[in-house]
């Protein structure tokens, strides 16, 4: 198993290199001239061609793309993401402030999605086919087909504006996290609830479930102790996929709720054509995607007895 | 005679799925005594599984069953029990072995701890004692190196070893009735013989009652004391294994035995399949259900349901539900 994992890890590393190279090429090819932007910022609209050329030369923007990519890669490895064209601050400083915000949002959202999906899925399975099951199915369906911004608006109207229970914008204590986390968790949680429900149903129809009943277990025991372990692998895999997608939800949700996280920074970077910032955020996303997937692979391997014991065979 | 450990009387089982409704078992009565093996034979779909597992509430998800009649065990009627009470009878009163141990054992659970848990739940053993009981049960069912196998997952054992583990699991709660639903069908021929020998050994040692559901007439002759021949949810013939196997009366039993290669030396013609297909059980017609496939069928067969009639037997009455053969061969035995 260790060998299998090392192979996956190697693959993940290659994937990161390829993806960053691709984003680097794309960002570079995007319309807009970095040197011109910097010159404008320094000298106002009247920056002349000579100044732009000098800046481009200083920044090495005239070097061939591969050379620039390798130089960028080296800097990035040492934690130097460059200076934001928008704020003029080193991006590493921006990240230090903003990553905790986004990480909290993702962690809260992930946790909510976990509880929500397991709770809803298990509850649906225990009330198999009955009224409650159909209601829950409806809830999950609505959750899985409603866009984030709509949910956010609804939640804000009800809980922040209408009831005035919790803040709707900015960060004022832990209650500020509730609405953004719920918003970000609803879609993945609903998708996961379906995964739980469908896979539990499938597992309950397998012969080992009948064995569970034959052992003298009641339905609840068979569900939790026989069927639930068997949905672990599809659940973990889907959770990984949904969790990585949550970063995209975060971009919208941070804007909507006034959270100064990575997502908000990314949108600003796009609006101000902050290529350095964009590249840095995209790199962060790539690292996030690849490492979440690698982690999920590892957990799935640890959970599956057939893989865990593979080296013994 | 002592009270049977499991006695079924006039059992009718209707199955409903969203698409079909089937009368799977139609007025069947049988009883099993401690220390006895009752074999249930019959073609696929004849209702063997539904008849034995239905009253225990062991039907697959999505199938609704409607039970009538009675099924008595441990002084209670399973037909009238709530699902909750029923689950407490399973395991403790009834142990079940299924056809394919590879799918019947949970791939995510280790073998040994499941046995230990049964011992704890039903015999109230301490964790350490339950573990020891589980290991000795693995040893008893012929699993080599039981200490090591205790912590194994199903995928780490061969089919034969898994069926032994399945038997150990069924026995872990010390049930009084062991139901084996085609316990050897999914196994290699050599392993089949070993598993049958193991079942026999367990029965000799424990005096447990065994209901053996099987297609394998060879297994019947090795293990069974009594036999029920089921056709389309009804008993076609029943009696001691010797009577039924050596002097079958019902045309269906005769056909079934003739279709077994080399079972009876007098079937010189070799194997013969029973022509035709089992009847459509979604409609209940009057008369004998075998009539459409029966070489001896007469007009009366299609109108009147044949009753089980005694045709001989010593302690165990030999009974068959075919008035035609009984009349033609003068077999009626009214004692
Ligand atoms: N899950 C199910 N859904 C619908 N009908 C079923 C189901 N299980 C059994 N039946 C029906 O019940 C009847 C009896 O089936 P049963 O499984 O008891 O037969 P069996 O004798 O055990 O056959 P086999 O030898 O194939 O195991 C059949 O007519 C079958 O069509
Ligand atoms: Mg069957």
Describe the secondary structure blueprint for this structure.
The complex is a heterodimer of chains A (313) and B (335).
Chain A lengths: L1 H28 L4 H10 L5 H10 L6 H13 L13 H36 L4 H15 L2 H15 L15 H27 L2 H8 L4 H39 L4 H10 L3 H29 L1 H4 L5
Helix pairs in contact in A: 1-12, 2-3, 5-6, 5-8, 5-10, 6-8, 7-8, 8-10, 9-10, 10-11, 10-12, 11-12
Chain B lengths: L5 E11 L4 E12 L4 E5 L6 H6 L10 E10 L2 E2 L5 H7 L4 E4 L3 H4 L6 H13 L3 H14 L5 H5 L8 H13 L5 E5 L7 H18 L2 E6 L2 H7 L2 E6 L2 E7 H6 L4 H8 L50 E4 L5 E3 L2 H6 L7
Parallel strand pairs in B: 3-8, 3-9, 6-7, 7-8
Antiparallel strand pairs in B: 1-2, 1-4, 4-5, 9-10, 10-12, 11-12
The site of magnesium ion has 3 residues of chain B, from helix 1.
Distinctive features:
heterodimer, A: 313 residues, mainly alpha, MetI-like fold, 2 domains, 13 helices, 78% helix, 0% strand, B: 335 residues, alpha/beta, eight-stranded mixed β-sheet, four-stranded antiparallel β-sheet, 12 helices, 22% strand, globular, binds adenosine-5'-triphosphate, binds magnesium ion
């Amino acid at each position: 198993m260790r060998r299998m994992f090392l192979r996956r890890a190697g693959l993940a590393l290659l994937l990161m290199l390829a993806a960053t190279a691709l984003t680097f090429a794309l960002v570079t090819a995007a319309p807009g001239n970095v040197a011109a932007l910097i010159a404008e910022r320094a000298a106002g609209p009247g920056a002349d061609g000579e100044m732009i050329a000098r800046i481009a030369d200083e920044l090495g923007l005239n070097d061939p793309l591969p050379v620039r990519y390798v130089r960028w890669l080296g800097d990035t490895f040492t934690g130097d993401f460059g200076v934001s064209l928008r704020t003029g601050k080193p991006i590493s400083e921006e990240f230090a402030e903003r990553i905790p915000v986004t990480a909290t949002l993702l962690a809260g959202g992930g946790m909510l999605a976990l509880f929500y999906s397991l709770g809803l899925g298990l509850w649906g399975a225990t009330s198999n086919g009955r009224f409650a099951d159909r209601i829950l199915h409806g809830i999950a369906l609505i959750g899985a087909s409603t866009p984030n911004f709509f949910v956010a608006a609804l939640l804000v109207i009800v809980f922040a504006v209408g009831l005035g229970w919790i803040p709707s914008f900015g960060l004022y204590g832990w209650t500020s996290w509730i609405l953004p986390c719920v918003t970000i968790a609803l879609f993945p949680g609903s998708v996961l609830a379906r995964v739980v429900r469908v896979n539990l149903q499938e597992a309950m129809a397998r012969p080992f479930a009948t064995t569970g009943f034959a052992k003298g277990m009641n339905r609840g025991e068979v569900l939790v102790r026989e069927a639930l372990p068997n949905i672990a692998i599809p659940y973990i895999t889907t959770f990984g996929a949904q969790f990585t997608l949550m970063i995209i939800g975060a971009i919208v949700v941070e804007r909507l709720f006034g959270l100064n996280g990575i997502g908000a920074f990314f949108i600003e970077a796009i609006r101000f054509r902050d290529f350095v910032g964009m590249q840095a955020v995209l790199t962060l996303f790539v690292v996030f995607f690849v490492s979440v997937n690698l982690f999920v692979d590892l957990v799935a391997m640890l959970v599956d007895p057939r893989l865990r014991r593979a080296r013994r065979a | 005679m002592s009270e049977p450990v499991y006695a079924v009387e006039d059992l009718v089982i209707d199955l409903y799925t969203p698409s079909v409704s089937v009368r799977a078992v139609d007025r069947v009565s049988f009883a099993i005594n401690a220390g006895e093996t009752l074999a249930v034979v019959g073609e696929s779909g004849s209702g063997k599984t539904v008849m034995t597992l239905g009253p225990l509430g062991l039907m697959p998800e999505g199938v609704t069953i409607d039970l009538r009649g009675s099924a008595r065990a441990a002084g209670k009627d399973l037909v009238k029990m709530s699902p909750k009470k029923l689950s407490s009878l399973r395991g403790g009163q009834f142990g079940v072995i299924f056809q394919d141990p590879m799918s019947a054992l949970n791939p995510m659970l280790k073998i040994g701890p499941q046995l230990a848990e049964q011992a704890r739940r039903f015999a109230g053993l301490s964790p350490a004692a339950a573990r020891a009981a589980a290991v000795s049960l693995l040893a008893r069912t012929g699993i080599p190196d039981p200490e090591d196998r205790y912590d194994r997952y199903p995928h780490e054992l061969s089919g034969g070893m898994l069926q032994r583990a399945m038997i150990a699991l069924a026995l872990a709660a010390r049930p009084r009735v062991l139901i084996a639903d085609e316990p050897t069908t999914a196994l290699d021929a050599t392993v089949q013989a070993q598993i049958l020998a193991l079942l026999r050994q367990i029965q000799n040692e424990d005096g447990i009652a065994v209901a053996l559901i099987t297609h394998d007439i060879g297994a019947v002759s090795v293990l069974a004391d009594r036999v029920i021949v089921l056709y389309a949810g009804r008993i076609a013939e029943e009696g001691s294994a010797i009577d039924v196997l050596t002097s079958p009366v019902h045309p269906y039993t005769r056909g079934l035995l003739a279709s077994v290669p080399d079972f009876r030396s007098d079937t010189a013609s070799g194997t013969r399949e029973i022509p035709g297909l089992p009847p459509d059980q979604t409609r209940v017609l009057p008369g004998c259900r075998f009539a459409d496939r029966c070489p001896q069928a007469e007009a009366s067969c299609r109108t009147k349901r044949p009753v089980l009639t005694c045709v001989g037997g010593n302690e165990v009455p030999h009974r068959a539900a075919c008035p035609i053969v009984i009349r033609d061969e003068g077999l009626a035995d009214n004692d």
